[in-house]
Write a structure and sequence with these properties.
The chain contains ten helices and no strands. It has one domain. The protein is globular and about 50 Å long. It is an all-alpha fold and about 250 residues long. The mean pLDDT is about 80. It starts with a helix and ends with a helix.
């Protein structure tokens, strides 16, 4: 019974993963901390959950022809390398630093996506391989250090800097999370940082929720989809500020 709350956290994470194109770590990390897990433990747990939810989510988006996986392969490869570096670096930084880094990137991502066009730029093109790899690596380092898939930050980059429509950015982001999540998960597992029982409950919940999140996204207009992303950014920023201000992380 002690692990049951993690099942519900996974369910919430799965819905947000499918709807927002994220791994779920943005939700899992703060909520696991609220359940009493340490920041580093919550970060490691989120990597396991996001790996499973992104596998199913990516399959669904490719099946619905939302993007071509080959066109964004270099983005994912950059993410794997970056996530491994970030996950390794996590062992040498304090929980407080990891929390502050998480908060700063949340604020930057919020500011960028809030000013982006939900419909995207009509002249936007697929980024060249070297740029895709560089973006993937940068987001991967962030993701590996703070235990998220990097999806929210990538959606902000795809819409705010590369001009992608919000719907396509969400689909591409979840594909990217598959690479980042698996890379970080492997690193944490090899270093003995994961409680696999809690991770199993999180993963089962997320698999049940991701399908509902994808369905909900398909029924939401681009404008409302964008502002739902912005609202979630604000909620997570408030939670993290509250926890940091109380000195709990």
């Amino acid at each position: 019974m002690e692990h049951l709350p993690f099942l519900f956290v996974g369910l919430i994470a799965g819905v947000t993963s499918g709807f927002f194109g994220i791994g779920g770590g943005l939700v899992v990390v703060p909520l696991c901390v609220l359940l009493g897990a340490g920041v580093k433990e919550a970060i490691a747990l989120s990597s396991m959950q996001m790996t499973f939810s992104s596998i199913y989510g990516s399959y669904s988006h490719v099946k619905n022809k939302m993007f071509s996986p080959l066109a964004y392969l270099w983005l994912g490869l950059g993410g794997v390398g970056g996530a491994a570096c970030g996950a390794y670096a996590l062992q040498f930084v304090s929980p407080h630093f990891a929390a502050l880094f998480f908060l700063v990137m949340l604020i930057i991502g919020f500011a960028r996506i809030a000013t982006a066009k939900a419909e995207g730029d009509k002249n936007a093109k697929t980024p060249p391989h070297f740029l895709a790899f560089a973006v993937g690596f940068f987001v991967g380092v962030y993701a590996g250090m703070v235990g998220v898939g990097g999806g929210f930050l990538l959606v902000a980059i795809m819409t705010g800097f590369l001009g992608a429509p919000i719907k396509n950015a969400v689909a591409i982001s979840l594909f990217f999370v598959l690479f980042v999540g698996s890379g970080a998960f492997l690193t944490y597992a090899l270093n003995g940082m994961i409680d696999f029982m809690k991770g199993a409950f999180l993963s089962l919940g997320s698999l049940a929720g991701v399908q509902g999140g994808i369905w909900l996204a398909s029924k939401t207009s681009p404008k409302h989809h964008k502002w739902a992303v912005v609202a979630t950014y604000i909620l997570m920023i408030v939670i993290m500020i509250y926890k940091i201000a109380k000195g709990e992380i």
